[in-house]
Amino acid sequence: MVPILLLLLSPALAWIPVEDWESGNVTASVGDAGQCLCHVYLPETSFPADRVQHMQQVSKDLILEVEIQMNKMTSYEGMLEVYLKDLLDLTVRVAMLESSPDNYIKLDFELLRIELREFEALVSQLKGSLNSSSPLFDSLYTEIRNMTLIVNQLETYDKSNLEVIRIEFAKLQKKLEECQKEQEIIKPDIGNCNHTGILSISKPTVVQLNAHLAASYQYGGWGKDSKPVRGYESMYFYGAYSSANVYDFYLYTNYEKLILRSAFKQHDIPNGWVGTGNNYIVHGNTIYYQKNSPFSMSKLNLTSSRYDYRVIPAASEKFSYSYSASQNMDFSADENGLWVLYASEGNKGKIVVAKIDEKSFGVEEEWNTGAFKQLAGNAFMACGVMYATRSVDLNTEEIYYAFDTKTNQEKHLSISFPKFQEKYTNLHYNPTDQKLYMYNSGYYVSYSVRFNKQ
User: Fold this and answer.
1) Domain range list for the chain
2) What angle, 0 to 180 degrees and rounded to 10, lies between the N-to-C axes of helices 106-130 and 49-99?
3) Which CATH class is domain 192-451?
4) How much is the pTM?
5) SS3 assignment, position 184
6) Mean of all residue pLDDT scores within the chain
């Protein structure tokens, strides 16, 4: 029988010096089954524990570095998607300039040039961070350079109209001066309802086209939180679509971010909670809007993303404002709290004012008014008074009716104010700045409200 030699090895065996094998540290014996066993006795100082510990630390550092680089790649991928989307928007704007350069002023070209330089710097930074020479980056560079050349070329066409541009700037400066004087006259007294009602409405401030840069997005709304939570006092919201539906909302940290179309959060309305109509507002960090099925008032908490709804049995789907279909429930907020306006068959199609209890999300009290909803362009609440509007002509709107929930008295008024476009789908009052916010044919428009304090 040939004996089998078994070596009982440990991971540290490779570190044993040759001289230790020859100095009696290795002994042999015969086992119970007749096999030959080889015993190796390792000296305590032969195992390099400090080396192993160092290797373990190096391994951990390498794993951490790999994770950091992977996170960077994920971040860069998201950044690249944003850059590509914004670059596409720029491409559309350059195409518009190219199709009609005479309609644009020097400032338009300079703004485009600045944005292009920013894009070039961002792409350079991204390329350097990734240490990449990908064809994707090369194509981005090429497109940015081409767009810059087009802008420069278009600007030369525009120089022939410098005199026209100077005249337009003079007109603009005059309008700004008039607006500044008007703002000095209308000084808001936030939170004070010690007055007899609205005295006048300022001229409109047309901010810009909506964040989608789509004039076809005729249905929507924008504005500020009427009861902001701490830290969100400057937040703005926006939502719009090409039909009278509610699919998503965008939130912006402040006015500057709204202008730059840089939302910090987007809420996509899930199936089962899709809304209709466009008279929604943000109040107490919660969006209130009209739900499709069942027909009800609905709310979305912007922090928890939690949805809830309440059916109002008396509310009818048959009566909407004159400018848009499906505007059956109109949410409003003022110095006295949260309201919802709707028409009922019991009130023969006239507007009903309902006070909402924010905690229970139910109706506290109701008032029947004398304003037919289908004749009104829109309505809003201010200091417990409902004001209804209607069209005077293509360029003029007026507040023609008021109902005071404190006294149950109604008034017929004629407070006219200009419109930017004929039709609008959202008009609401905000007590934090005493302004009206209007979504007017795809544009953000606002007005200052002046109250009669005599």
Assistant:
1) 5-46, 71-161, 192-451
2) 160
3) mainly beta
4) 0.62
5) helix
6) 79
